[in-house]
Every structure is written in structure tokens, then in C-alpha cells.
Amino acid sequence: MAATAARVKALRGAGGRFRWRTPVVAGGVRGAAQDAAGQQDYDLLVIGGGSGGLACAKEAAQLGKKVAVVDYVEPSPRGTRWGLGGTCVNVGCIPKKLMHQAALLGGMIRDAPHYGWEVTQQVPHNWRKMAEAVQNHVKSLNWGHRVQLQDRKVKYFNIKASFVNEHMVRGVAKGGKETLLSAEHIVIATGGRPKYPTHIEGALEHGITSDDIFWLKESPGKTLVVGASYVALECAGFLTGLRLDTTVMMRSIPLRGFDQQMSSLVTEYMASQGTQFLRGCTPLRVKKLPDGQLQVTWEDLESGREDMDTFDTILWAVGRVPETRGLNLEKVGVNINPDSQKILVDDREATSVPHIYAIGDAAEGRPELTPTAIMAGRLLAQRLCSQSSDLMDYSNVPTTVFTPLEYGCVGLSEEEAVARHGEEHVEVYHAYYKPLEFTVAERDASQCYIKMVCLREPPQLVLGLHFLGPNAGEVTQGFALGIKCGASYAQVMRTVGIHPTCAEEVAKLRISKRSGLDPTVTGC
Ligand code: FAD
Ligand code: NDP
Questions:
Q1: What pTM, to 2 d.p., does this model score?
Q2: I want to staple 469 with a disulfide (CB 3.0 to 4.6 A). Which of 21, 249, 448, 458 is the partner?
Q3: Is the pLDDT of residue 32 over 90?
């Protein structure tokens, strides 16, 4: 507090450390608040301690700036709460990938006897034990983030922030205590939360979302997953892999926005592993029965027929809403897209108010992925705090859907390439291959498929790569570098493979779709 008081005094005396670039709104609000007890001033204030916010704050502090991060997690409607680190760490990538791994291990246990392991009895899975281990890891990451902030002298406040004026934010702590923080630059990195289809009777009372699934202490049991994108298919995939009776209800297509041939193969493989699909259906109501079971009634959109079944758990995975509503953005003139509620930004991540920025899931038109939020945050800090003018390049961002058979991709889908360049100018090379590990284990490899989408004109620039198979994320990451550097089909063909791997199949894609030849890989 003494340091703060001295700082406020210094600000008053020497004209302050702030070099305001824009006039302060709301008349004397800032001046008055400057005198208020407990107000603290920073070079950079980050709202949201998730992937993007933490990266931005740490980078700015490293560059010598006085930085604060405010982070506050509103419990889910089910009451689930978690610590510092945002979606990825607590209710996203990390617990998801660990549960995916738990499910993959089940597959390996099934493979093991083929490799001589004498697995003499059914190996049961213990959800409670897995969840506890996953949750402990997440808690260690929460702690790690706090330590990192401390090490880099970033001040962390566990408060929920909203704007008072263009340079000032009010934070409210769990117990109601208020803190005023002001800064020269403010970065909004508040992410998003899962949507509830509140128009569906019983959805909010009886359903859960990805904010809860990873924190359940007991097995969710027979589960209905509603939705058909990343979150839905990944969750349904690991639940099936953990041998739970799992049904996916999709109203339209799987993985909208992804290459649709690949998306169909993803769901085909899931179906072969036991996930049930209710296609072209939408839920109408959820009722809790006296025995605690959830009765779901749905409509078949084509026939209009109603049907019902009972489940232990309903998981809504119907998209996410950005956390922008409580920020008081209208008051300071930060524009949002009224449909998506996301913050409108330019290529410097600047909002309609020049010294207020938005990154990550809360910003309009950005991929909702951790590495993009992190890179955007770091680059923004470098531009604000050093001489950098490097902008985030959102093109050719690789991603992987961690379904039982993983799907990694980078660049354009076949549909996008054809739409942009015309069918005549696009060449697609493809292969159905069998991972070596699948052979001895007698696994079905019908959906292990790769395609590379190229321009037809030599040197045949690679526009997109799509890989369906084990370790797709690991495979796709390396090729993403090539594609980012403008690799051509000819260069990929001159890349020596690593044998025996699945990744080497990418460097052996000789059959074009246009040729009509059988793309099944035989032999080494
Ligand atoms: P977040 O990480 O969401 O952080 C925002 C933080 O701000 C939160 O802690 C929030 O509570 C806080 N906050 C919000 N409002 C306020 C306020 N007013 N005051 C103070 N604090 C506030 N991405 C991948 O790249 N790979 C994956 O495998 C992957 N898997 C995912 C799985 C699931 C189930 C989900 C839901 C997402 C997954 N994602 C994945 C996406 C990834 O988690 C997000 O893109 C990423 O976390 C976005 O980072 P962010 O910094 O924008 O926001
Ligand atoms: P999306 O917005 O991508 O998908 C929402 C899904 O729910 C769609 O299948 C949509 O169907 C369906 N849906 C929407 N409303 C309804 C409704 N009322 N009834 C039935 N179905 C409905 O959201 P996600 O939550 O899956 O993912 C959000 C983002 O998180 C992703 O875009 C991704 O960037 C990130 N993420 C990344 C992961 C990774 O990197 N591995 C993993 C998980 C998430 P329709 O197509 O018909 O609209």
C-alpha cells in the first residue's frame, strides 16, 4: 500500500508515468479514482488469466513493464470451480488430453495379448482414480502459474473485472471487496464458456458441460453428448474408450468447417469403436425420473418423429459464448459483434478503443485454440513493450481433434481449396494406410487416411494436409512448419521418410484423386 501511495503521489507530481494516447472518458472519474484508497496503476493490465492473458502478461513483465493480471472463475451452473490458468489448463486441452490418453490405454490393453502379454482377466477402469490423478495434475499447473507470475513480478488479483472508464477497471473479489486498477494499456483475454441450450426444457437443471465433465468425482455412466464439433466428439471419444455407453446426438454434420471427407472418417471410426450416433436429431426436453435417471425426448428432424431414452448424464457440447457481457464494454466504447458477442479487433489485436486490446477466444475471427492465444499475447506484449512490429499470422494454423483416431490438419480443406482455386486447379494426393502397430494387434485400419491438397500447377504448392491416424498432433506439427514455409508437393516428395512410422506415409503420397487409382498403401 505504501508503494502504491508513493506511486500515486509521483503520478500527480511529475505528470505521471502514463502517457495517455486517448482522452480519458467520463470527466473526472479517473482523477477522482486516482485518489481513492487501494487504487493501483500499471503499464499493462490483463483481464483474464488463461492461455492468452498469462502469456501476454509474462512477456510484458519480462520486458520490464509493471504488469497485473486479474482472473476470476465464475462457477459453472453445476457449481464446478477451478483455479488460475483458464480454459485450457482447467476444463479444456489438458484434462481432455489426459482422459483421451486414459482411453487410448484401454485400446493398448486390448492389443497387449497379441504382443504376448498374458492379460488374464478383464481390466476394469476406475473413473474416480483417473479423475483424481487428472485433477491433481491440473491443480499443480494452477500452482505453477501462480509461481511463474510471482517470479516475473506480475501482480495477480483473483477478482472479477469490469471497466470503469477507458483506463480503469473495477475488480470484485469473492467476498465483495472492490479494487480499482488503472493502466496505460489494457488487454482483454477473458475467453469463453460453454453454451447451454436454455430453450430446451430441463437443459440447465439436468445437463452438464465441458466445464464439469473433467471434475466429476464419479463416472458419468451412460452419457448423451449433444453436439458434433471438437468438444462433443473428443468427449464422446474418450467416454467410449473408457467403456461407457455413449451416444452423440448431432443435428447436422460432424466437425463443421473441417474437411468433410475426413470428418466422416472420424465418426465412422468412432462408430466402429462403439460410439452410437443419433444423426439429424435435436433434443426437445430433459426430465429427471424418480430413480434419478434423465429422460431425454428428441425429434428426428427429417421425419418429425419423437423418440426418447434415458441416460445418467447429458453433456451439452453445443458451442461456447465469449465472456464479454459483464465487462461494461459499451461504457468505454469497445465494439463487439452483436451476434457472436465477440470483440472486434484489427490485425494488431486493437479494439475500437486504441489502447484496449483483445486476444484469444474473446476476440472476433480468431481460432479458438491455446497456441494462437499464447502467440497473439506474446507478440502483442512485444509490440507494446519493445520496438517490435511483428503481427500474429493466423494463416495455416495447425490443429488436431483428439478423437479415438486423431485427426490433424493444417491449411485448407479440399472443399475450401476447390472453392478458392477451382477444381481444375487443385490436385489431391491421398492414401489409405495401415499403421504397423495395427497389424500384429489385428486392428481395423479402414479409416487411417491421409490427403494432401495442392495446387495443380507445378511446383504444386501444398494448400492443406489432413492426417487421420495415431499421434496425429505429433505428425501434423512438423509438416505445419513446411506448409508455413511454402512447401510444394515436389519438396514433400523429396523429403526422406522415417521408417517405420505413420508420418512417412505423407512423404509417399503418389496417388492423385483425379487418377482414380486405388490409394491403398501395400507393402513398406
Ligand atoms: P481462457 O483460457 O478461457 O481464459 C480466460 C480467463 O479469463 C478465464 O480464467 C476466465 O475465468 C477469466 N475471466 C473471464 N471474465 C473475466 C473477468 N471479467 N474478470 C476476470 N477474469 C475473467 N485448444 C487447443 O489448442 N488444443 C486443445 O486440445 C483444446 N482442447 C479444448 C478442449 C475443450 C473441452 C475446450 C472447451 C477447449 C479446448 N481448447 C483447445 C481451446 C482452448 O482451451 C482455448 O482456445 C483457450 O483456452 C483460449 O484462451 P484464452 O486466453 O482466450 O481464454
Ligand atoms: P463449435 O461451435 O465448434 O460447435 C458446436 C456444435 O454444437 C456444432 O456441432 C453445432 O452443430 C452444435 N450445436 C449448436 N447448437 C446446437 C443445438 N441447439 N442443438 C444441437 N446441436 C447444436 O463448439 P465446440 O464447443 O465444439 O468448440 C469450440 C471451440 O473450442 C472450437 O472451435 C475449437 O477451436 C476449440 N476446441 C479445440 C479443441 C482442440 O484443439 N482439440 C478441442 C475442443 C475445443 P451445427 O454444426 O449444426 O451448428
A1: 0.93
A2: 448
A3: no
The response to whether residue 327 sits with its C-beta less than 6 Å from ligand 1 reads yes
HEC states along 56-93? HHHHHHHCCCCEEEECCCCCCCCCCCCCCCHHHHHHCH
> Whose C-alpha lies nearest to ligand 1, atom 6?
48
Single out the catalytic residue among 167, 199, 421, 499.
499
Buried b / exposed e over 383-415, threshold 16 CB at 10 Å, is bbbeeeeeebeeebbbbbbbbbbbbbbbbbbbe
pLDDT tens figures, 286-303:
999 999 999 999 999 999
Whether residue 459 has a cis bond before it, omega within 30° of 0: yes
Which residue from 198, 229, 406 has its CB within 8 A of the most atoms of ligand 2, so it is best to mutate? 229
Q: Report the alpha-carbon distance of residue 185 to residue 508 in Å, rounded.
A: 50
Give the mean pLDDT of 307-327: 98
Give distance in angstroms: CA of 423 to centre of ligand 2.
29
Residues of the chain with CATH 3.50.50.60: 2-22+36-77+139-193+321-384, 203-318
Ligand 2 neighbours by CB, cut-off 6 Å: 197, 226-232, 234, 251-252, 256, 282, 317-320, 367-369, 399-402
Residue nearest atom 26 of ligand 1, based on CA coordinates: 93
Average pLDDT in the chain? 93
How many angstroms separate the CA atoms of 302 and 159, rounded? 48
Please report the pLDDT score of residue 501 as a whole number.
Answer: 98
CB distance 72 to ligand 1 below 6 Å: yes
- Whole-number Cα distances in Å, 450 to 475, 478, 511, 515: 11, 15, 11, 16
Catalytic-residue membership of 145: no
Please provide the CATH number assigned to the domain covering 405-515: 3.30.390.30
Q: Locate 178 and state its grid cell.
A: 472492490
Q: Which three cell numbers stand for residue 225?
A: 453428448
Distance of CA 26 from the midpoint of ligand 2 (Å)? 40
Which of 483, 463, 476 shows the shortest CA–CA distance to 505? 476
CATH superfamily of 2-22+36-77+139-193+321-384: FAD/NAD(P)-binding domain (3.50.50.60)
Q: Which ligand is nearest to the CA of 195?
A: 2
Residue nearest to atom 53 of ligand 1 (CA): 191
